[in-house]
Specification:
Blueprint: H1 11-35, H2 43-67, H3 75-101, H4 109-131, H5 138-166, H6 173-207
Helix pairs in contact: 1-2, 1-3, 1-4, 2-3, 3-6, 4-5, 4-6, 5-6
Length: 208
Amino acid sequence: MPFQLVPKEEKFFDLFNNQASHNLEAAKIFLELAQNWSADSSAFARLQDIEHEADITTHEIYDRLNRTFVTPFDREDIHELGSEMDDIVDLIQSIASRMQLYRVDHSTEDMKSLAETLLHSVESVKKAVAELQHADKSRRILDYCIEINRLENAGDRALEAALARLFQGKPDPLEVIKWKEIYEGIEAAIDKCENVANVIESILVKQA
């Protein structure tokens, strides 16, 4: 093992795990909201709190990056990983807020299905991130990334099915606009999970 006069800053892994935990908590709350919809739910305030905490964690990642001489992997990858994970929480909170703004008064089976896929994706992200600090776990990490990619494809199919049902018959144009944005917002959060997986795969390739 090469000698390092200045040790690598390992605190980044704790921060990434914190960010992944924020993602998971937000995805769980959003699924609960989808399954038991209420415009007056306390879940909206909880999501805002989590989004704020995630922002703090992201800023701490950037601040530590600016103050750290030797990082565990490329600085660009650290910045991108922190940013992409923060976007997941931002999107989840944004979707919930938009539903309140649009005065949505019910959930749908398609929303529940997409929210479930999002939760599974976020769970796999958390597992992959948790193993990043273990160089000997690259095969396991790649398996999690493959699962995230599979779930992104499943999210695409679920979105297509949801949109097809949305346009059946003679729907109310305003309802179509509202639900199309909601469905696409959830799928965008699932896409962000795939972006995280792509960053992690890039890190593994560089460390190989």
